[in-house]
């Protein structure tokens, strides 16, 4: 059986994903044994790389809880307060994130040395000047990214425009695939990559919570409004691009694999969360902790599917 676990992007909301995984792993202790591929985008890429390196889910939760403020600091809800940087600069630098990854990704091995297949979405700006293009950092034989280190892969996939500077000529893979599931499935079935049989594939997909965001009336917005950091959600255009593709990829995987081979684990949130507000971490973790009580049928469905397939 070819087992895939995928993790969506979502910034600090990865804390919810990690807590959900920790809870499921406590109920089904063997679910992370013999995983064939981890796939992730942005914060989900960091989780995927951490798991491939042997970091436990509870330790990943701890990383979010203890370091969110360091990564997203100072957090300004209102961009006008950020006069010192000006609107022409990213909200944060990646210095503290890089240090955190170097401290926790033991020995910082290249992707080729990971014990399982990996797929990390990022987007190349192409510093050579020809054309930008989407990139899947994988460690399948023949991949041009075998020597990319785990820290560099994590920083490439999480370099979200507006929030962080580009890294080594790459930006956040969420600009084309915030949900990595369909890409992971295609790589699994590709004869030149995993070459897995369709019937052997089992795909577990984790979201970072479904944000109840909407625009309740027709708008005549320009760039300033669509990219407004004070909007609800902040930077509406970026949120729409990332949220929309996640739902489409969920539908595509469900139709291709069916309910017996595919499971989506995602929590419907009661309010909208910014991807960079570290102050939400405790509440996001609480959302995951309360999920089995508030949604027992959905929790039982997920647990039952994992028990049968992982």
From TrEMBL:
Motif segment (DGA/G): 172-174
Motif GXSXG, residue numbers: 40-44
Positions occupied by motif GXGXXG: 9-14
Keywords linked to the UniProt accession: Hydrolase, Lipid degradation, Lipid metabolism
MF GO annotations: hydrolase activity
GO biological process terms held by the UniProt record: lipid catabolic process
Pfam families hit by this protein: Patatin (PF01734)
Occurrences of domain PNPLA (ranges): 5-185
Active site: 42, 172
Domain of life: Bacteria
PANTHER family associated with the record: INTRACELLLAR PHOSPHOLIPASE A FAMILY (PTHR24138), PHOSPHOLIPASE A2 (PTHR24138:SF10)
The protein's name in its UniProt record: Patatin-like phospholipase/acyl hydrolase
Taxonomic source organism: Anaerobacterium chartisolvens
